[in-house]
Design a protein that fits this description.
Blueprint: H1 2-5, E1 8-10, H2 21-31, H3 33-36, H4 54-59, H5 61-77, E2 80-92, E3 95-101, H6 115-129, E4 134-140, E5 144-151, H7 154-163, H8 175-186, E6 194-200, H9 211-220, E7 224-230, E8 235-242, E9 248-254, H10 259-268, E10 273-276, H11 279-292, E11 296-307, H12 309-328
Parallel strand pairs: 3-4, 3-6, 6-7, 7-10
Antiparallel strand pairs: 1-2, 2-11, 4-5, 8-9
Helix pairs in contact: 5-12, 6-7, 6-11, 8-9, 9-10
Length: 335
């Protein structure tokens, strides 16, 4: 019963004070019962002991029906209203570009099952948390391209992330080219916060634009770059060549990440550099970036009310009508 009234309020709560009259009305009704029903004087009632009819039992309902009508009318007069809430959310989102390395070394198996698949899963988890942000995907290897433009349709973003694969681009690691492509996605955006998360596992060895120059361009446009070097320490099982059928051949190779360059890019753009040597560390890095780059959300609660007095008025009318029908038909008293 309490749950039923949880979302209800009364437009005229003062009317509920009339319910205090109900006990007085009941007391008065009880006092007047002898005047309402005729009395038949008999010398003895012994012969009628235990005699009762369905009319006698039904007559007890009459005052209760009138009482129900009175209570229902008072509640209807108080105008019960059901509260319907609406939330109007105004979010000042952040434009985010995920620039992901697709060079063949991302297939190294020091992550499970490899660096690329682990990075994709963590990136999808990150996208799931950024409910109000526009997100774009840029892929780079020896060259770079925009896989997904800025969009708030995160289903589309997740789909494009899941389809990223090594071998789609000329092999190599064009960090400067990848960063420049990411910059082009957000440089003209009107939002206040624009960030790029650049993930790579190698050394810049391709592309026509130096990474240092791309970092300076990002700073001029007010774009913050978070750089992530992904790969274990020491050596890892890494693709080193391809067979005649295009399949990768793996061998143990040294993990080489230009941490100095990635750190310089981050410092130039007021971002941060992170090193992830495991998928767990990579997850923590994305979680930290999620905490550092909070979306501003303004929530306005709008309340609407739905009138519910008609139901109580209807019950009062039904109870009163039923009481009158019974009183003047099957329960009619002989004058």
């Amino acid at each position: 019963m309490m749950n039923f009234w949880a979302n209800y309020t009364f437009a005229q709560p003062w009317a509920l004070l009339l319910l205090l009259l109900a006990p007085l009305v009941g007391w008065w009704y009880y006092r007047q019962r002898d005047q309402r029903y005729p009395n038949l004087r008999m010398s003895s009632l012994a012969a009628l002991a235990g005699v009762s009819s369905w009319r006698t039992r039904l007559r007890i309902l009459l005052p209760w029906l009138r009482g129900v009508a009175l209570v229902a009318l008072v509640i209807a007069l108080a105008r019960p209203q059901r509260t319907l809430q609406e939330e109007s959310i105004k979010a000042e989102g952040i434009d985010i570009v995920l620039a992901m390395d697709l060079s063949s070394s991302m297939l190294a198996q020091d992550f499970s099952p490899n660096r690329l698949e682990a990075s994709k899963q963590v990136a999808i988890d990150f996208v799931n948390k950024r409910l109000y942000d526009r997100i774009s995907i840029v892929a780079f290897a020896g060259e770079a391209f925009t896989s997904c433009p800025l969009t708030t349709d995160h289903d589309v973003v997740r789909t494009f992330i899941s389809t990223l694969a090594c071998g789609a681009l000329e092999d190599g690691t064009a960090i400067g080219q990848g960063l420049a492509t990411a910059i082009n996605r957000v440089k003209d955006s009107e939002v206040v916060s624009k960030i790029i998360i650049l993930l790579t596992d190698g050394v810049n060895n391709a592309g026509y634009l130096p990474p240092e120059m791309a970092a300076n361009i990002a700073r001029e446009f007010g774009i913050k770059v978070y750089t992530i070097g992904v790969g274990s320490q020491g050596e890892a099982l890494t693709p080193v060549s391809r067979d005649p059928f295009g399949r990768y051949r793996y061998d143990i190779a040294k993990v080489e990440i230009d941490e100095a360059l990635l750190m310089q890019i981050a410092e130039t753009t007021d971002g941060r550099y992170f090193r992830a040597t495991s998928q767990e560390e990579l997850q923590k890095i994305y979680d930290l970036i999620d905490q550092l780059e909070k979306t501003t959300i303004e929530t306005t609660v709008v309340k609407r009310y739905q009138e519910r007095f008609r139901g109580f008025a209807l019950w009062a009318a039904i109870a009163l009508l039923l009481e009158l029908i019974l009183r003047y038909t099957v329960l009619r008293s002989i004058p």
